[in-house]
């Protein structure tokens, strides 16, 4: 397959950047991952780094399956917990996407999101593990009210918060010209899905697409704005023989 | 300096040694009160026996009544500082000192801690909840004095002995449910029911502890989910700001506790269950599928009580108890009467209540004693609520005594079988209706 991919990570207006990301080739496909260390828990930057490194170590060199992805996430959770002590309870979110052949496997823990676009529309969006998402699930608010909601930053799942973790896993079918976006909450909070789709439509490649969205964020970010990071991927050619 | 009691178990020392505890020194957290501190000149505090985000519990001794007690200290750990080696006073820090109106958030929530104790103190005779004996402010914080209950928590019992038989734990839970229903009627919620908040005393019923722990600190002081919710037992609405909490929330936690007791497994937490439910996936493992021997109707009732969506649960404990699957058909409650001891008159009691005094009260059934000026015009009343009877002194001149204890004016006290009410020289015994003969007609 051939893809166009781009990524960036910015500390926004914070003193530290606790986001981490990676984009690696793997067995004819790619592994993309974004992790957002939880601020206020201490050492969020280390937690997000451990998350990415552990997952890559478990997945690289193999064909990814749902089961392997699940185990990789569990390992990342264990590795982060090993670093805990009385003063340090570091935690991180993670979003991982493995593209290979005609399918992709997506995994998320927390509120770092994965989007899949096809023909100008969002056809897959991961569900946040946050308290405001719970309000959506019980019908108290609409999904479009999550941005800016009072409970937005309260996560119900993250790596490092419990001994066991359950990631949301999805197997996605790939079409030519499908696009993916992995992004931390500092990113998606400042760009609407319609804007993501519009910028995709008017861009020639992943880098242009990502720059357009980043431009919106930079113009909207508040003086205390969060770290923001994203990986943009466009499938320019897929491999039908696999 | 305390030289009389062991500060670990509050038993009397013998020749300076505790008969039960090892005599090695125990280290107390320096933030906790120094063991041996005496509060209100009568409560000896010992070592802490529990500490959570909102309070510290100490074993103690009531030096006047010579009984063991548990003392709960209001101490929201995120905002409180103390070095007990220097002073017993608590200092409040940071965000909690920001003022809003009359009080700051710390003061407001401390006041709520005391208000709740005040209400719980009325449930002194209630079997299913720990008795509150006293509450007061000291050391810039607040204290609740409760009965000390020997025995394991349900959590400890599960760890040591494994899961309970269904019929056994459901029967044991009944007094807790009935007490909780009465507390709900007073507008209070527990908010933190779980196996580690229910004690199984060596003698007697299960007792529910630690009321309202999660409510004392307002949401603006504490954004952490982990302090406000107990995974597996907190219902989904307890996670959300502005979540609609009510008796259904305590019912969720209670049924989740029963689930744990019969399966040995902590239920998945509410966010996870909600997540699965919205994907049309099974959100909880069904006990019978896990090998638990349980009647289908009772299993369905427990799962209903812990439905993820609040509208699918029982909305009140009386609704839960009305279902016969829990305890079988409702037994007819016995009739109660008052028997005047001086002449053995039997006075009937019913839903309308009874007013006793020198003069008739047109609003109620009356029993008149006209020839004793030590008795006030309206001396005491008896009222009925959900099958229980309560006596209340109406501000009488010479007082009403329940089992030799003077009642506080206008504060109802629950009546138990064979209780004696005394006013002046007249004594009345509250008892089940004697067989044979009709009660004395009521004077209006």
The rounded Rg of chain A comes to 17 Å
Taking the sheet with the most strands of chain B, its summary is: 6 strands, antiparallel
* Main beta sheet of chain A: 5 strands, antiparallel
Query: What's the tally of helices of chain B?
Result: 9
CATH fold call of the largest domain in chain B:
Transferase(Phosphotransferase), domain 1
Beta-strand share of residues of chain B: 15-25%
Taken from the alpha-carbon principal axes, the silhouette of chain A is globular
Structural class of chain B: alpha+beta
Q: Would you kindly provide a written description of the structure presented here, covering whatever features stand out?
A:
The complex is a heterodimer of chains A (242) and B (444). By secondary structure, chain A is α+β, with helices and mostly antiparallel strands. Chain A has six helices and ten strands, in the order βββααββββαββαααβ. In chain A, 49% of the residues are buried. The termini of chain B are far apart. The chains are: A alpha+beta (242), B alpha+beta (444). The A-B interface holds A 127, 129, 131, 134-135, 137-138, 140, 150-151, 153-157, 161-162, 166, 168 and B 223, 225-226, 231, 236-237, 239-242, 269-272, 274-275, 277-278, 309-310.
Descriptive key words:
heterodimer, A: 242 residues, alpha+beta, 5-stranded antiparallel β-sheet, 6 helices, B: 444 residues, Phosphorylase Kinase, domain 1, Transferase(Phosphotransferase), domain 1, Tumour Suppressor Smad4, 6-stranded antiparallel β-sheet
């Amino acid at each position: 397959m051939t893809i166009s991919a781009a990524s960036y990570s910015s500390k926004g207006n914070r003193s530290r950047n606790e986001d981490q990301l990676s984009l690696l080739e793997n067995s004819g496909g790619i592994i993309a991952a974004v992790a957002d260390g939880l601020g206020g828990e201490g050492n969020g930057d280390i937690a997000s780094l451990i998350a990415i490194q552990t997952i890559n170590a478990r997945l690289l060199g193999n064909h990814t399956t749902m089961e392997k992805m699940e185990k990789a996430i569990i390992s990342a959770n264990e590795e982060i917990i090993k670093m805990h002590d009385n003063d340090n309870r570091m935690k991180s979110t993670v979003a991982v996407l493995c593209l290979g052949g005609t399918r992709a496997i997506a995994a998320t823990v927390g509120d770092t999101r994965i989007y899949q676009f096809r023909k100008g529309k969002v056809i897959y969006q991961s569900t946040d593990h946050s308290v405001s998402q719970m309000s959506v699930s019980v019908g108290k608010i609409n999904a479009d009210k999550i941005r800016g909601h009072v409970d937005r930053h309260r996560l119900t799942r993250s790596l490092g918060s419990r001994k066991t973790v359950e990631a949301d896993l999805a197997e996605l079918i790939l079409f030519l010209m499908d696009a993916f976006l992995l992004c931390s909450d500092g990113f998606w909070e400042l760009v609407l899905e319609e804007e993501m789709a519009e910028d995709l439509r008017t861009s020639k490649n992943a880098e242009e697409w990502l720059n357009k969205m980043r431009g919106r964020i930079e113009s909207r970010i508040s003086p205390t704005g969060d770290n923001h990071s994203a990986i943009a991927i466009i499938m320019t050619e897929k491999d039908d023989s696999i | 300096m305390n030289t009389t009691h062991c500060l670990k178990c509050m038993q009397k020392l013998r020749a300076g040694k505790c008969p039960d505890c090892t005599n090695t020194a125990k280290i107390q957290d320096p933030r906790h009160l120094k063991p041996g501190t005496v509060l209100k000149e009568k409560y000896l505090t010992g070592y802490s026996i529990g500490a959570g985000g909102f309070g510290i519990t100490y074993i103690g001794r009531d030096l006047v009544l010579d009984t063991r007690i548990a003392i709960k200290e209001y101490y929201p750990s995120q905002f409180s500082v103390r070095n007990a080696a220097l002073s017993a006073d608590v200092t409040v820090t940071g965000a909690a000192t920001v003022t809003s109106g009359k009080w700051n958030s710390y003061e407001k929530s401390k006041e709520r801690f005391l208000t709740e104790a005040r209400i719980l103190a009325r449930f002194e005779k209630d079997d299913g909840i720990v008795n509150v004996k006293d509450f007061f402010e000291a050391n810039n914080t607040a204290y609740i004095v409760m009965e000390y209950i020997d025995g394991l928590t349900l959590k400890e019992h599960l760890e040591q002995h494994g899961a309970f038989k269904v019929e056994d734990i459901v029967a044991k839970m009944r007094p807790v449910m009935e007490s909780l229903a009465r507390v709900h009627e007073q507008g209070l919620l527990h908010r933190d029911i779980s196996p580690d908040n229910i004690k199984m005393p060596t003698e007697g019923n299960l007792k529910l502890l630690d009321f309202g722990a999660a409510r004392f600190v307002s949401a603006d002081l504490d954004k952490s989910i982990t302090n406000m919710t107990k995974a597996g037992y907190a219902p989904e609405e307890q996670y959300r700001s502005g979540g609609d909490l009510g008796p259904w929330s305590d019912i969720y936690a209670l049924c989740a506790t029963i689930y744990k007791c019969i399966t040995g497994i902590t239920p998945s937490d509410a966010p996870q269950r909600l997540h699965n439910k919205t994907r049309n996936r099974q959100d909880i493992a069904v006990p019978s599928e896990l090998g638990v021997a349980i009647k289908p109707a009772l299993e369905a009732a427990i799962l209903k009580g812990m439905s993820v969506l609040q509208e699918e649960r029982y909305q009140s404990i009386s609704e839960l108890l009305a279902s016969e699957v829990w305890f079988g058909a409702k037994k007819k409650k016995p009739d109660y009467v008052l028997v005047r001891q001086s002449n053995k008159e039997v006075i009937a009691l019913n839903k309308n209540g009874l007013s006793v005094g020198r003069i008739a009260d047109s609003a109620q059934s009356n029993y008149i004693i006209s020839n004793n000026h030590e008795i006030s015009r309206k001396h005491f009343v008896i009222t009925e609520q959900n099958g229980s009877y309560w006596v209340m002194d109406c501000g009488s001149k010479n007082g009403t005594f329940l089992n030799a204890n003077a009642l506080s004016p206008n504060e109802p006290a629950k009546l138990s079988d064979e209780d004696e009410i005394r006013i002046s020289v007249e004594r009345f015994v509250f008892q089940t209706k004697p067989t044979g003969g009709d009660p004395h007609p009521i004077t209006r």
